[in-house]
């Protein structure tokens, strides 16, 4: 009997281990026919999804607009004013770093701007339907240097109809790729800015 005691003990141990493994398997939920494990529910922050699109199909840049983003090299801005029935846009980009930044424009276009309704609906894009010379041009901004442009919106939608009175949003984009003096690519978000205005 002694020579059979060890195999019997081993067999009993294997049975116990198998039983423990079975009980440890995820619980089968027959109501919805899926396997589920009992895990503590994770607390995740609520993120509101917005299904608003801009003219080029990309997500609306205003909702949300990265409030926590802080530029390191370039600071873009747009100022708006009503002028003879049109909206004047004073667009600028300034080098806020302590070293030169090089802007490379792939065409003769220097900027673009998009107009949105108060709820984010796309109304107009300045560059749509326009042609630009395919000429590469580079501009170097010294530390503190600024590049400025002036553009106008006639208050009409892309279909040619006059926009109604109310509040509007504008996003301007400097259409260049920027690099630091060390060859580092500057974040493209530093080449855009947003503003708000009203049509009387």
UniProtKB/TrEMBL annotation:
Gene3D superfamilies: Intracellular proteinase inhibitor BsuPI. InterPro entries: Intracell_prot_inh_BsuPI, IPI. Keywords: Signal. Residues 181-190 have a biased composition (Basic and acidic residues). Residues 76-178 form the Intracellular proteinase inhibitor BsuPI domain. The keyword Transmembrane helix does not apply. Residues 181-200 are annotated as: Disordered. Residues 1-24 form the signal peptide. This is Intracellular proteinase inhibitor BsuPI domain-containing protein. It comes from Caldibacillus debilis.
């Amino acid at each position: 009997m002694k020579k059979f005691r060890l195999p019997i003990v081993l067999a009993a141990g294997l049975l116990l281990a198998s039983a423990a493994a079975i009980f440890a398997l995820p619980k089968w939920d027959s109501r919805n026919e899926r396997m589920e494990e009992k895990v503590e529910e994770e607390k995740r922050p609520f993120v509101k999804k917005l299904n608003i699109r801009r003219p080029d199909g990309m997500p609306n840049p205003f909702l949300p607009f990265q409030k926590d983003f802080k530029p390191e090299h370039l600071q873009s801005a747009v100022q708006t004013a009503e002028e003879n029935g049109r909206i004047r846009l004073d667009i600028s980009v300034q080098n806020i770093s302590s070293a030169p930044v090089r802007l490379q424009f792939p065409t003769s276009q220097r900027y673009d701007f998009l107009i949105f309704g108060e709820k984010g609906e796309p109304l107009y894009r300045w560059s749509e339907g326009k042609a630009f010379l395919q000429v590469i041009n580079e501009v170097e901004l010294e530390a503190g240097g600024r590049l400025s442009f002036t553009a106008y919106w006639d208050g009409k939608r892309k279909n040619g109809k006059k926009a109604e009175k109310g509040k509007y949003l504008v996003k301007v984009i400097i259409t260049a790729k920027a690099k630091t003096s060390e060859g580092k690519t500057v974040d493209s978000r530093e080449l855009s800015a947003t503003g708000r205005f009203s049509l009387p």
